[in-house]
Design goal:
The complex is a heterodimer of chains A (429) and B (706).
Chain A (H helix, E strand, L loop, with lengths): L1 E3 L5 E10 L6 E7 L2 H4 L2 E8 L6 E7 L2 E14 L4 E10 L3 E3 L3 E2 L6 E7 L8 E9 L5 E4 L5 E4 L2 E10 L6 E7 L5 E13 L3 E12 L3 E2 L5 H6 L11 E6 L3 E7 L2 E2 L3 E5 L3 E6 L10 E11 L4 E5 L2 E7 L9 E13 L2 E6 L5 E8 L8 E12 L5 E7 L7 H22 L14
Parallel strand pairs in A: 1-11, 9-18, 16-27
Antiparallel strand pairs in A: 1-2, 2-7, 3-6, 4-7, 5-6, 8-10, 10-15, 11-14, 12-15, 13-14, 16-17, 17-24, 19-23, 20-21, 20-24, 22-23, 25-26, 26-31, 27-30, 28-31, 29-30
Chain B lengths: L1 H34 L3 H5 L8 H15 L1 H5 L2 E2 L8 E2 L7 H15 L6 H27 L2 H13 L1 H4 L9 H22 L2 H17 L3 H17 L5 H18 L8 H4 L4 H22 L2 H28 L8 H7 L1 H7 L1 H4 L9 H8 L2 H14 L3 H19 L4 H28 L7 H7 L5 H29 L8 E4 L5 E4 L1 H12 L5 E3 L5 H8 L2 E2 L8 H12 L2 H10 L4 E5 L14 H8 L28 H4 L2 H7 L15 E2 L4 E2 L10 E6 L5 E6 L8
Parallel strand pairs in B: 5-6, 5-7
Antiparallel strand pairs in B: 1-2, 3-4, 7-11, 8-9, 10-11
Helix pairs in contact in B: 1-6, 1-7, 3-5, 3-26, 5-6, 6-7, 6-9, 6-22, 7-22, 9-10, 9-12, 10-12, 11-14, 11-21, 12-14, 16-17, 20-22, 21-22, 22-24, 25-26, 27-28, 27-29
Classes of the chains: A mainly beta (429), B mainly alpha (706).
């Protein structure tokens, strides 16, 4: 088992060797989370030895109302046989800054509360846990022997024959200056135009969730301190699709001029600097938007049926944590039979209607919402709908008609004389 | 019959050609006037400029979102803490209503335009309208040709552009259009003498009143025109009808604006209009009696009436002034009549750069060749006096006086300069163009004989036309250059050239305001000098103590006192005013010269102008040799006051320029005098990237026993 604590997230990967000691062939096994971590769980997946995803279904156990999953094995496990599976769990908000507020010059220290043992409903014959930290400076850690520390890794174990559901508190207190940046709210707006363009706009609110800044902020010290390893956040990288163009980065006060776009081979890298460096407890918000050509994301299934494949969530920064995501997809005018397929469970809000340029009919908006997401949730959303391509001409025709009527009126007004009496061609004195 | 039939198509054709030409020239001028104002949008972005526009933008947003009634009743608690401000009753709502109307109109047609963009592009849009209305006005005064020249000139005149570039969302942007519209309808009314045009003039006047305080100029100019017409014996029924309609309807309408209220019948500034209205009635009455009575009887009656009415008028006027019903002349108006009045009496008015008297160079800078063409235009107006020409002459002469008194009234002068220059240019060109044509063989012998005493007529005419063309071309280049260089910087984003030629953008203001918005409590109160008040409320959405609406002198003075006092004294004032954060603008690192240290003497003067600030004396802040300096020679009072400490906190350690000691102030060109000090009652909360804006947090009172 590896616990990766280098970033603001807790990433636990465990490779499990299962042995069927029972008498019957087993088709599925159970994964149970510790009661403390259930609430903060963001992502869980299990893969078999061939790196293929296994199906997870939540189940209920005694004492474990939530946080228990039943994993279906691809091949049933016969008595006495073994198989391996790897489990990946990502937990957010589990690293607590301690002390909770620091001055500008201090380092950021965090504490991790975990379990020395792998939490499982089964007997564990042998287990080791290695904890990877972001730096060598560790204040202290619980020393359940055998334990060794080398560089920035602490290795616990091997422990033998640990009974089921055993817990023993592990505390690691160490220095972690990686960005503790949380996206508190992300509104992603995808607008489809059948003229060949999909506009994406993301309204992002970010908060530095690390140790709060105590005392004053000194620009002088900040400018002198050039070391890259600082708990404040100066800039971060956002990755956009390679075809993105018309990129803009602004907030409610206008354009933010401190950003750089670099085109990489397969993506576009955007280096964003918020208006001000973010210290613990400081928040900021911005809007990032771009357009992508629709041929890469919008497909025609049959004569009037279209499929949209867009990411439900896109990359904001590495090791990101999104507390709340709302994705709105604005469909073209006059769609029907909208079907939404999501890669994972998403709350679907009531559809809305929005009016864009010259829409008197209004466009329907699919609204989706999900909380507590990480990078692993960057997956495609599929929307299928029916749409007549004649509607493309709806607005130009409307505009043409309006102008036509206007000109007709002008012509009539100019040609006809509406005055009641003929104005006498007056004498001017 | 045949002849007529033959003649008509050609005349018709020429007419059509002329219409087409006129329309296309006008359209081009209107488009040009819109396009030339877009420099800053293209260079930077669609952003609101300067200070006042931010307030207008904020109120417009409120109006567009909340509707007119809540706007009308809006009590703003974000400004003038702890007093607040009744927005609805203290502004000219014309601008906001106009853009909100545009906004709703666009949305009605489902054109989803942002309210900010409406605000940014409103001024250029209205300058296009101004171009058209200038054409109409000049056409009424002179002819269509002059109108076209004037329209083309007004579309790019820098004096007007200075207040109407995209993003400079201020009252003046639409007020000039309203003013010219009123003049146009007024001249129409005078010419036709119909109630319809009189009422239209009143409506245009109402629009003008609702949008700018400068309407006072208008309501004095029109009566002046009427008075002049009376004196010159041109008074007629047409003028009687036009003026009576305009005055009655216009005054009643203007009183609907709550900020104006009863001023049109009470304040001295409006008395000329009222007086002339009375005179009109008397004049008309006298004319009527004269037509009914014999000459002798009339003379007796006339002299009797003149004396009685004169005495009565003086008596009533005196009584009303003494009883306070007619308010005394306000300070801004005095400074119009006497340029040195404000400087001597009201520091807050004198401290604003746009209230300063205009320098000669800025006349040329803003108007270029118009300055020379203007007298020519005046001459042509005098040479054929009509009612309309007299109006133009009056407008030109009065506005040139006012523009000389106050820089910002250049705006009022610019259109009339264009109109009169347009008249001059068109008149001259028509005259000389004819002569260049005369070289053609198809010429009558008679006229040839008459003009044969001119030598080289054709050549001289061509040369003259060439010179005029050259002047006009140079005017175009000058205007474009001025617009691009002087009037198109948003002042909220600064840009500078780095030594390798690249462009550096200083976006510190928005950085600081955004920091305030994001990282201070919702109800935080921010103290800053009043210049930044509107921007803070609009961009940071925080409560401020004083802002650009300088209605409460004592409150501003209190802030000035805090800035000018020592730390302990300032702390008392800041605690009294419940200040949480203090914001200062500091240019010492970047060389931004309009920062708070350079404005500091005004703070001292304004701070010392009230009773509570009597201990603050301007002379304490000068060095012994009588200079204002921040280095070691500077006065100790200055080196230890709050403003100094906030600006230069920890600046003493910074190297700003090669070869200079640390703490070298690039604006003042001096090494600061007081370097190592700590702040006792404040702590640095935020400083922007280039140190332009520094924000300090006021510490709480210390706990007892510590």
């Amino acid at each position: 088992r590896t616990i990766d604590l280098t970033s603001q997230l807790v990433k636990i990967t465990a490779s499990i060797t299962l042995e069927n000691t029972g008498k019957e062939t087993v088709r599925n096994f159970l994964i149970v989370l510790e009661p403390d971590t259930v609430g903060n769980l963001s992502y869980i997946s299990v893969k078999d030895s061939l790196k293929e995803d296994l199906k997870l279904t939540p189940t209920k156990l005694e004492n474990h109302e939530t946080g228990a999953y039943s994993v279906q094995l691809k091949q049933p496990l016969a008595t006495g046989r073994t198989t391996t599976a790897s489990l990946e769990i990502i937990v957010t908000k589990d690293l607590v800054p301690y002390p909770s507020s620091i001055t500008q010059k201090e380092k950021q220290l965090v504490r991790y509360f975990g379990n020395h043992y792998f939490y499982t409903p089964y007997l564990t014959t042998k287990q080791t846990t290695s904890v990877t930290l972001s730096s060598r400076s560790v204040e202290n850690y619980t020393k359940l022997k055998p334990v060794t520390q080398s560089e920035s890794t602490i290795t616990y174990g091997p422990y033998n024959d640990i009974p089921a559901f055993s817990q023993d508190r592990m505390i690691v207190h160490y220095e972690n200056n990686s960005p503790f940046l949380t996206v508190t709210r992300l509104e992603r707006l995808i607008e489809i135009s059948h003229w060949g363009n999909i506009a994406v706009e993301e309204n992002i609110e970010i908060l530095h969730t690390g140790a709060k800044l105590k005392g004053s902020f000194s620009r002088y010290d900040y400018q002198r301190d050039t070391s890259s390893n600082h708990h404040s956040i100066k800039s971060y990288r956002t990755i956009l699709p390679a075809a993105a163009y018309n990129i803009y980065y602004r907030d409610s006060n206008g354009n933010i001029s401190t950003s750089q776009v670099r085109a990489r081979k397969d993506w576009i890298e955007l280096e964003l600097r918020p208006r001000f460096p973010l210290f613990g407890g400081w928040r900021s918000s911005y809007t990032l938007g771009y357009s992508v050509p629709s041929y890469q994301y919008l497909y025609r299934k049959s004569s009037s049926e279209y499929v949209l494949n867009m990411r439900l969530l896109d990359h904001v920064f590495d090791d990101m944590h999104v507390e709340e995501l709302e994705t709105y997809v604005v469909l073209p005018v006059g769609v029907s039979d909208v079907k939404v397929t999501t890669p994972f469970d998403v709350e679907r809000l009531a559809d809305g209607v929005t009016y864009k340029y010259l829409d008197h009919l209004g466009r329907s908006v699919v609204k989706l919402r999900k909380t507590n997401l990480v990078e692993q949730h960057i997956q495609d959303l599929e929307i299928t709908y029916n749409w007549q391509s004649v509607l493309l001409l709806h607005e130009p025709i409307l505009l043409a008609l309006a102008l036509y009527v206007l000109f007709i009126f002008v012509i009539i007004y100019v040609r006809l004389d509406f005055s009641i009496h003929k104005p006498e061609h007056s004498k001017k004195d | 019959m045949l002849g007529l039939g033959k003649k008509n198509p050609t005349a018709n054709n020429a007419e059509k050609q002329e219409t087409l030409l006129t329309l296309s020239i006008l359209t081009l001028a209107a488009i040009l006037s819109f396009a030339t104002r877009l420099f800053s949008v293209l260079r930077f972005e669609s952003v609101i400029h300067e200070f006042d526009p931010y307030f207008n933008y904020r109120t417009t947003k409120f109006l567009a979102e909340e509707g007119f009634y809540s706007f009308h009743n809006w009590f703003d608690d974000r400004a003038w803490y702890p007093l607040g401000r009744i927005i609805g009753g203290t502004i000219y709502p014309g601008l906001m209503v106009t853009s909100a109307a545009f906004y709703h109109l666009c949305w009605l047609f489902n054109i989803t335009i942002d309210i900010r963009n409406v605000c940014v592009f409103l001024a250029p849009l209205f300058s296009s309208f101004t171009t058209i209305i200038t054409y109409l006005l000049t056409k009424e005064v002179k002819n269509a040709g002059a109108g076209l020249v004037a329209a083309a000139m007004v579309s790019i005149v820098p004096g007007y552009i200075s207040r109407s570039v995209a993003g400079s969302y201020d009252n003046e942007g639409i007020a000039i259009f309203c003013m010219l519209l009123t003049y146009y309808t007024w001249i129409k009314a005078v010419k036709t003498g119909t109630i319809l045009w009189g009422t239209l003039a009143a409506l245009a006047y109402f629009y003008m009143v609702s949008s700018w305080g400068g309407y006072v100029f208008l309501i004095n100019l029109i009566p002046l025109h009427v008075l002049t017409l009376m004196v010159t014996g041109r008074f007629s029924h047409r003028i009687y009808i036009a003026y009576s309609t305009l005055y009655c309807v216009g005054t009643i309408l203007s009183m609907q604006i709550s900020f104006v209220g009863f001023q049109p019948v009470q304040s001295s500034e409006h008395m000329l209009a009222l007086g002339v209205f009375g005179l009109c009635q008397i004049h008309a009455f006298v004319d009527y009696i004269r037509s009914k009575l014999s000459k002798n009887d009339f003379d007796v009656l006339f002299s009797f009436l003149v004396y009685t009415v004169g005495v009565l008028f003086v008596f009533v006027f005196g009584l009303l002034t003494l009883s306070g019903k007619i308010s005394p002349w306000t300070g801004r108006f005095y400074s119009l009549l006497d340029p040195s009045y404000a400087k001597n009496h009201i520091p807050i008015i004198a401290s604003v750069s746009e209230h300063q008297p205009t320098s000669w160079s800025s006349f040329y800078f803003d108007l270029q060749i118009l300055v020379f063409l203007f007298p020519a235009g005046l001459y042509f107006c005098f040479s054929q006096l009509t009612d309309a020409n007299i109006f133009m002459i009056l407008y030109g002469v009065t506005s040139i006086y006012f523009a000389g008194v106050m820089v910002r009234l250049m705006l009022v002068l610019a259109p009339v300069m264009c109109i009169l220059s347009g008249i001059a240019v068109s008149h001259l060109l028509t005259k000389f163009m004819k002569n260049t044509d005369s070289a053609k063989p198809s010429e009558h012998k008679k006229s040839k004989k008459l003009e044969s005493n001119y030598v080289l007529k054709n050549e001289i005419s061509s040369a003259f036309v060439g010179v005029i063309c050259l002047l006009l071309i140079s005017y175009t280049f000058h205007c474009t250059w001025v617009t691009s260089e002087a009037y198109s910087s948003p002042s909220i984003v600064l840009s500078a050239r780095s030594h390798d030629g690249g462009r550096i953008i200083f976006d510190d203001f928005r950085e600081a305001y955004y920091w305030l918005k994001m990282n201070t409590p919702e109800d935080a109160r921010i103290m800053s000098w009043w210049d930044y008040g509107y921007q803070i409320t609009a961009m940071a959405n925080r409560t401020i103590l004083v802002d650009n609406n300088t209605w409460n002198n004592t409150h501003i003075s209190r802030v000035g006192q805090a800035m000018a006092s020592s730390e302990e004294k300032a702390y008392e004032i800041m605690k009294e005013l419940d200040v949480d954060y203090v914001l200062v603008i500091f240019g010492g690192l970047t060389g931004y010269s309009s920062d708070d240290i350079n404005k500091f003497l005004w703070m001292v003067r304004i701070g010392g102008s009230t009773d509570r600030g009597a201990h603050i004396k301007e002379w304490d802040y000068y060095s012994s040799s009588g200079e204002f300096r921040v280095d070691k020679e500077g006065s100790q009072t200055l080196l230890n006051c709050l403003m100094y400490k906030m600006c230069y906190y920890r600046f003493g350690q910074v190297y700003t320029e090669g070869g200079k000691p640390p703490g070298y102030d690039r604006v003042r060109g001096a090494e600061i005098g007081n370097k190592d000090f700590e702040l006792d009652v404040l702590e640095e909360a935020y400083t922007t990237e280039h140190w332009l804006v520094r924000i300090y947090k006021v510490k709480d009172l210390p706990n007892r026993g510590i």
